[in-house]
């Protein structure tokens, strides 16, 4: 195990959540690239893949029937309907196996899922990723170009609600620059605490 990941902090579970388009996936991808010693859970989803997304890497893309089966078999640590459309969830077995093996583990999930994990795994460190400003969040959502106008408005409405949930979290990271946010997130595994932002 690399320096800084010894002892109890080694098997820490960190949950990264925040509003839509804040860059959770981009920050998680940075962690995956720079810190392969940290395992990142791959969520299952019923939404279709976006251009460039790879099944099993970005998400496990499943049918509604398969998702229903996972729920029925208690195979998901958390799940939620996101943006009143597709369902997303975290496979339970993989998370439990990695934590039992002492592997530092990251869940990059939505707010509803984070609340469920807090109930089932109270020792998890809850990290809220927020944008530098509301204007920047809007710019990122529009710049992504993956949603039409109606979907964008729905996501922005959801984002306002999601931003209000920040006080529920243990620590906040402001995603001004991806690699800086990535390193702040990795520091949570080493220290077990985070630098609080106003």
Structure at a glance:
This protein is α/β, with parallel strands linked by helices and 198 residues long.
Structure description:
It is a single chain. By secondary structure, this protein is α/β, with parallel strands linked by helices. The protein has a single domain (7-191), classed as Rossmann fold, CATH 3.40.50.300. Helices cover 40% and strands 18% of the residues. The protein has seven helices and nine strands. It has a five-stranded parallel beta sheet, with helices on both faces. A four-stranded mixed beta sheet has the order 4-3-6-5. α1 crosses α7 (178-191). Mean pLDDT is 87; it is low at 1-10 and 194-198.
Which characteristics define this entry?
single chain; 198 residues; 40% helix; disordered N terminus; Rossmann fold; alpha/beta; 5-stranded parallel β-sheet
Low-confidence segments, given as residue ranges, are 1-10, 194-198
- The strand count comes to 9
Secondary structure class reads: alpha/beta
Rg, Cα atoms, Å: 16 Å
Shape: globular
| SSE string | EHEEEHEEHEHEHHEH
Helix content: 25-40%
Oligomer: single chain
**CATH topology, anyone?**
Rossmann fold
Give the averaged pLDDT, no decimals.
87
The CATH superfamily bears the name P-loop containing nucleotide triphosphate hydrolases
Strands ordered across the widest β-sheet:
2-7-1-8-9
Domain count, please report it.
1
- Strand % is 15-25%
End-to-end separation:
33 Å
């Amino acid at each position: 195990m690399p320096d800084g990941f010894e002892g109890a902090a080694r098997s820490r579970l960190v949950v990264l959540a925040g509003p839509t388009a804040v860059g959770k996936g981009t920050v998680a991808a940075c962690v995956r690239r720079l810190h392969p010693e940290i395992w990142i859970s791959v969520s299952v989803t019923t939404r279709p893949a976006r251009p460039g997304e790879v099944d099993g890497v970005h998400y496990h893309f499943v049918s509604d029937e398969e998702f229903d089966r996972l729920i029925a078999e208690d195979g998901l640590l958390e799940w939620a309907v996101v943006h009143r459309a597709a369902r997303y969830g975290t496979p339970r077995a993989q998370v439990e196996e990695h934590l039992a093996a002492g592997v530092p583990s990251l869940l990059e999930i939505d707010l509803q899922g984070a609340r469920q994990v807090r109930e089932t795994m109270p020792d998890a460190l809850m990290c809220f990723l927020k944008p530098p400003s509301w204007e920047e969040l809007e710019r990122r959502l529009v710049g992504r170009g993956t949603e039409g106008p109606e979907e964008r408005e729905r996501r922005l409405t959801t984002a306002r609600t999601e931003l209000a949930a920040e006080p529920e979290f243990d620590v906040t990271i402001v995603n001004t620059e991806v690699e800086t946010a990535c390193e702040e997130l990795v520091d949570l595994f080493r220290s077990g605490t985070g630098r609080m932002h106003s």
